[in-house]
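TEACHING EXERCISE
Course module: macromolecular assemblies
Task: Read the component lines below, then compare them to the predicted structure of the full complex.
Student: A.B.
Group: 4
Components provided:
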Amino acid sequence: MATISVEGKEIEVDEEGYLVNLADWFPAVATEMAKIDEVDLGDDHWDIINFLREYYEEYQIAPAVRVLTKAVAKKLGKEKGNSKYLYELFPYGPGKQACKFAGLPKPTGCV
Amino acid sequence: MSDDIKKFMFVNTKAPYGTVYALESLEVVLISAAFDQDVSLVFCDDGVFQITRNQNTEASGMKNFSPAYKALGDYDINKLYVEKESLEERGLTLDNLMDLTYEDEDDDWAEKPSIKLVTRAELADLMDGQDVIISS
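Instructor-supplied answer key:
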């Protein structure tokens, strides 16, 4: 099993880099995962990461990118709830990459 | 793509925990939503327990995935048929089921109920009109 090292802790991840135990997440985990993907996390990234964590808390699933886009538009406004904006923040796909940083499983319904 | 829309009906007949059928079916449903098909769900027999309120799985050690049914509306899945006889046979009413809703794009995003109570006979007619029926 692969691990990443965050603040001295070894955290288990699967072969695609998603957390094995969702409870292992804390903010520095996202920062470390982003560093591995060469993404520099700013406030705009955190808005989406926090949004995803709240969504998962409420629905117990990681939303498909289409659903995420719509939900972000509703909560944070249309200028953020569009796929161009989200892909600029998360070049490997807002569903897959943002969910990974947020410590969620791979989105259900992402193909 | 719009020429290829088929009517898919997922028929849920089993209690939510104890087997993986309910969870697996829900995952297939959520994936199918990505393909812009006409998707409906049926809850009959013990399947009606899948969408009951206040599920608590603590003692079973299984994850309570029932909140995920509330996301179906976000996935544009808003035809959830509950068989009336199945509810009655189990001493349940609509009040025992979760409030599952969707926002109607064509009606200024008004929140509307997704659950529709149908009789066994009505369900048979609905099934007649489907292209694909997947039962679990």
